[in-house]
Amino acid sequence: MFEVARIYRTDNDSSLKAFVDIIYNGQLLIKGLRVIVGKSDNLFVTMPKAQGKDGKWYDTVKLLDDAAKDEVSDVVLEAYRV
């Protein structure tokens, strides 16, 4: 259902390793997912965020199904590791 449309890898020493755009079911483009390396050197995927008027950052896309979250993470990390 999900496929990677684009990966932009960052070439720096920060925890942000890539920006990713994905396509859902050939009909919906979600831009701005991030691949992050955690403190224990594990990779994980975060959803796109926007800064609110209060200065805090909020997800602009929220996956409500755990299976969908796992699928997005698996697809993105597999494409990132290639």
Secondary-structure blueprint of this entry?
Elements: E1 2-9, E2 16-24, E3 28-37, E4 43-46, E5 49-51, E6 57-59, H1 66-81
Antiparallel strand pairs: 1-2, 2-3, 3-4, 5-6
Explain what this protein looks like in three dimensions.
This protein has 82 residues and is of the alpha+beta class. The chain has a single domain, classed as Stage V sporulation protein G (Arylsulfatase, C-terminal domain). Helices cover 20% and strands 45% of the residues. It has one helix spanning 66-81; strands at 2-9, 16-24, 28-37, 43-46, 49-51, 57-59. The strands form two sheets. The protein has a four-stranded antiparallel β-sheet with strand order 1-2-3-4, with helices on one face. The chain has a two-stranded antiparallel sheet with strand order 5-6. Strand 5 and strand 6 (57-59) form a beta hairpin. The longest helix is centred in the C-terminal third of the chain and has 16 residues, at 66-81. The radius of gyration is 13 Å and the shape is globular. The relative contact order is 0.22. The mean pLDDT is 95.
Shape: globular
Q: What is the average per-residue confidence, as pLDDT, rounded to a whole number?
A: 95
Are there runs of 5+ residues with pLDDT below 50, and where?
Answer: none
Helix content: 10-25%
In the CATH hierarchy, the architecture is 2-Layer Sandwich
Report a brief summary of the structure.
By secondary structure, this protein is α+β, with helices and mostly antiparallel strands. The chain is built from one helix and six strands; from the N terminus they run ββββββα. A hairpin with a 5-residue loop joins β5 and β6 (57-59).
